[in-house]
Amino acid sequence: MPELPEVQTTVDGINKTVKGLRVNGVWTSYESQYYKDKESVKCPKYFKKFKESVVGAKIVSAQRRAKNIIINLDNGISVLIHMKMTGHVMYGKYVKTDGVTSGKKVGKKSDTNVVDKNDPWKPDKSESDALRDPFNRHIRLVFSLSNKKHLVLCDTRKFAKVVFLNTENMHHTPHLSHLGPEPLDKSTTYEVFKKQISKKPEGRIKNVLMDQTLLSGVGNIYSDEALWSSSIHPETKPKNIPEENFKKLYKSTLDVLSKGIDFGGDSMSDYRNIHGEKGAFQTKHNAYRKTGQKCSREGCDGVITRKVVGGRSSHFCNKHQTKF
């Protein structure tokens, strides 16, 4: 799932590409009986209201709250996108093919006129090869823009959440009101960080770090990396972490999140940036998905181990990460 750095990278990309453009139309292939009468574009009735609320409005800005992308419009409406497991937002010129492929194999058939109803939107021939990455082909939501280009949501597993909110009170809605402090905000000092984490003294630090009600934006990747850097075993209870290591954890959390942004996010899985390109943080991992490899810490002869902690996969060094 895209975490804080991936979402921030996307938001920065949106601000650089579509600010000032109008939304001329919206299309979606999302539709599910599970979402009938629910607040989701996956409900046809809700999508109709969504479309009425955004078409004709100008994009003013984009911002991030936790793992949510928020696109603010000039009519007092904001579009919230949570990319979930496999979603990512891209920008470019797209063509709706009505599902007709060109010489591609779809299912068990191979024909120049095979209809693939699930993925009718394709990048225009003028666009870069990056947008043709196989991970970028499942376009579920399309905003047609006033410059003849498009802002699209690719979502292989169809888990993403998209809603529209009143900009003025969006932070008081159930979508955002439960979220904890932003770790990279200046107001989130060490004292605030420790206070939030200490609200679950008996929890396991791996899971506590990822609790979005305590701290916003941290997930599997960056929690593993922060714990590796601060020498804390993922099963350690917050109440047992020595002050020195707590301070290291605070600094490490900020450092790995900032580094994630600097490297354009992590594309170990599906994530791609606004131009359909991979980030590079996956090349900087010390723990995440390094199972069986020698620990890269200088002087440490440990091996990276994988263990499920509180239902979440955790990667850590079996030597220098101490279970206090």
Give a verbal description of the structure:
The protein is α+β, with helices and mostly antiparallel strands. The chain folds into 2 domains: 4-65 and 67-172, MutM-like, N-terminal (N-terminal domain of MutM-like DNA repair proteins); 190-317, Helicase, Ruva Protein, domain 3. The protein is built from 6 helices and 14 strands. The strands form 5 sheets. It has a 4-stranded antiparallel β-sheet with strand order 1-10-11-5, covered by helices on one side. Strands 2-3-4-12 form a 4-stranded antiparallel β-sheet, with helices on one face. It is globular and about 55 Å long. Residues 101-115 have low confidence and may be disordered.
Topology record:
Layout: H1 4-17, E1 23-28, H2 44-54, E2 59-65, E3 68-73, E4 77-82, E5 87-92, E6 94-96, E7 105-106, E8 109-110, E9 121-123, E10 139-145, E11 150-155, E12 161-166, H3 190-197, H4 205-209, H5 220-229, H6 243-262, E13 304-309, E14 312-317
Antiparallel strand pairs: 1-10, 2-3, 3-4, 4-12, 5-11, 6-9, 7-8, 10-11, 13-14
Helix pairs in contact: 1-6, 5-6
Task: Spell out the helices and strands N to C.
Answer: HEHEEEEEEEEEEEHHHHEE
Q: What name does CATH use for the topology of the largest domain?
A: N-terminal domain of MutM-like DNA repair proteins
What's the story with the biggest beta sheet? 4 strands, antiparallel
Q: Provide the helix percentage.
A: 10-25%
Oligomer: single chain
Structural Rg: 21 Å
Q: Describe the strand arrangement of the main beta sheet, using strand numbers.
A: 1-10-11-5
The number of helical segments is: 6
Nearest-integer average pLDDT: 94
CATH homology superfamily name of the largest domain: MutM-like, N-terminal
Shape: globular
Tell how many strands the DSSP assignment holds: 14
Count up the domains.
2
Distance between the termini: 29 Å
CATH architecture of the largest domain: Alpha-Beta Barrel
> Strand portion, in percent?
15-25%
What's the CATH C level of the largest domain? Alpha Beta
Structural class: alpha+beta
**Segments where pLDDT lies below 50 for 5+ residues?**
101-115
